[in-house]
Amino acid sequence: YTPGNTASCQPDACHLFVCRWALEFVMDAEADGLVEVSEDGDPSRRRRVHGMLKLYYGLNEEGKAEEEQESLDPCDINGPHFDPEHYLNKLRRECSLAELMDQETCMVKQIRSLDSDMQTLVYENYNKFISATDTIRKMKNDFKKMEDEMDCLSANMAAITEFSACISGTLQDQHAQITKLSGVHTLLRKLQFLFELPARLNKCLELQAYAQAVNSHRRARCVLRQYSHLPSFKGIQDDCHAIMDKLAQELRQKFRDGGSSAKDLAQCVELLLQLDEPAEELCDKFLSHARSRLESDLQGLEAEIRPYPSAPAVKDFIDRGCNEFVSSLCLVIASYQELFINHAQMANGKLHAFVDDLAARYFSLVERRIQEEKGVGDNSLLVRALDRFHRRLQAVAKLLPGSPVPNKGIEIVIRAATERVKQYLAALQSFYMDSLTDVRQALATPRLSVAGASVAGELLSSLSASILNQIKSVLASVHLFTAKDITFSNKPYFKGEFCSQGVRESLVVNFIKFVCQSSRQFCESAGDKGGSTPPVLLLLLSRLCLDYETSTISYILTLTDEQFLVQHHSPVTPVTTLCEEAREAAQKLLNHYVKVQGLIISQMLRKSVETRDWVNTIEPRNVRAVMKRVVEDTTSIDVQVGLLYEEGVRKAHSSDSSKRTFSVYSSSRQQARYAASYTPSAPMDTNLLSNIHKLFSERIDIFSSVEFNKVSVMTGIIKISLKTFLECVRLRTFGRYGLQQIQVDCHYLQMYLWRFVSDENLVHFLLDEIVCSSAHRCLDPAPMEQSVIEVICERG
Length: 796
Description:
By secondary structure, the protein is mainly alpha-helical. It has helices at 13-31, 43-57, 84-94, 97-124, 126-171, 175-207, 210-226, 231-257, 262-274, 279-305, 314-339, 344-371, 380-399, 405-444, 449-478, 492-524, 535-564, 575-610, 625-642, 671-675, 686-696, 710-730, 736-753, 760-776, 786-795. Helix 9 packs antiparallel against helix 10 (279-305) and helix 23 (736-753) packs across helix 25. Keywords: Coiled coil, Endosome, Golgi apparatus, Lipid transport, Protein transport, Transport. This is Vacuolar protein sorting-associated protein 51 homolog.
């Protein structure tokens, strides 16, 4: 078809086939992207064009002819039975003139559109149509050449078949004769092998080719035994027996020499078994020879354990044991099982006893070497050594199922890890005690009181941080036992028990208990004056234990559980139990600190009372120096405690707390109330009134437990100090000026001590008791005027 020349189009069958094939080719090529459609048209137009062309040629979406039932309707314009006249008559009957005109217009548009689309496809794919035509022409030529070659091949095959039949017919008569001659030739070769066998065996014996000699003899043994009644075969058999006896003797000699390797030894045993040697005897000889070699390996390992300067590292020791002893043992087991597999019941018992005996000696050496690892610096070498040890024992487990050797090796690994944990616990305890020694040395350095108190706070922070960092460092070292690349780390028999009981309980919990117990020992070892333990250390340890109770213990145990994925299958110590123990230790330390500090101040007050002549003393002109020292020390203690503990709660202070006065009968304020009950001739005894008043006053517990705050601590210290002062006063006799001096001292103490306690009435009550007791013990009770006391105290 040439555009513009419709006369050249001949509607023959070949032309229709080519056009239809070309159309299918264009449509398939366009679907594969090989043919391009004009980009000016929109997608809906392209689909419409393809749909109309397919509908015209009766093709489906895949380009195949649709196998649908043909329409018999003569009015179906797309059907094969379409009748134009019938279709036009139907339209004229059913449609109006306007509808007929519209139908004509629509049909003309469809015809023009179809012609236009067909021409567009032809124009755009003209070269593809030309190429399709050339392809069809080439295909016709190629098929013709192929038909010629197939005819030639068929002729050749016929000639070959004819020639083969001719050869088979020619050789048919000689086939039986050839078969007979081949059998005779084979028999002669066998006879030749038999006659040459003695010489062949001697040659193998000279070259020590024992395996080849045994194989040759085994091939001929049955034949020689079958025909041993013939003299010639009998002679060959006797010669072979003599040679094989000599060969067996040489193989036995290799056992006795003891210089053969395990591989050569296994080969000797295999050859002797093929020569019908007794299996049980060979078992014993094989194991005896293997024992001598393995014992030499054990002796070499034992020599390395003996202490000398260049002792190898534990990993090198384990590597040598695995590479030499364990590897040789595995080779012996494998060779033994392969050789004596047909004698399992007898052989297995001997093998198990052999392996258990040597493995026990090897494990003993390994444990001795591991026990020499005392340092806790680098834990990786020991972990790697145990990992290699465990890996190699798994090979024994695979070769010898049911053997107790792997389990005993696992026990060694577990014991080594547990012992390592104990060493780390001892290292933590030693570090803690060394840290306390450093703290005590720092506290013993002469400093000003306030500066020393601030140093105590710094020492607490440093001590707490260093202990926590050391615990983290130890946990990181121990965590190497549970690394993912360690074979025994994820085994149930190791991980669960090691993490729970080994790390959490034996290491972390025991160290926390050690901190609490060692701290409590400072309270038990101290004497009346606190012994050699600085009071500040007691206060510092008390705060440390309290911090452990509030946060540190929970943090450490949570860190341990998360880091080691601890699963509490077995009973473990609850966090609350440890916190209670830490709080108990903190309470005991703080109570003891109060007692020690109170006794120190009490000692000063006691000496000041006992060493003075209160009857003949001079009139007081100032406050005694010991009272100033008491106030200074109390102030220093207040600063010291305030740096470590919170303030606490105080009762509301009165406006004249520092200006309260003390009467010599202040403890008997109710004297006038009771005096009317007695006759004037029998005046009320002031001591009796004082005792009656004490019965109804609130009892003061001097040595009660203190709370964890500064106010409670200072209240406890001041109670002990003033109570001691009171008891010392009750044991002395006072003159007029002695009583006045006590008044001055008590007023001075009242001016300052009320600031430190939770309830100022407590200080006032005790000082009131001191002045009253002095008055009761005074020979000439003449109190000093309050204004004079205030002047002296303000001047002091």
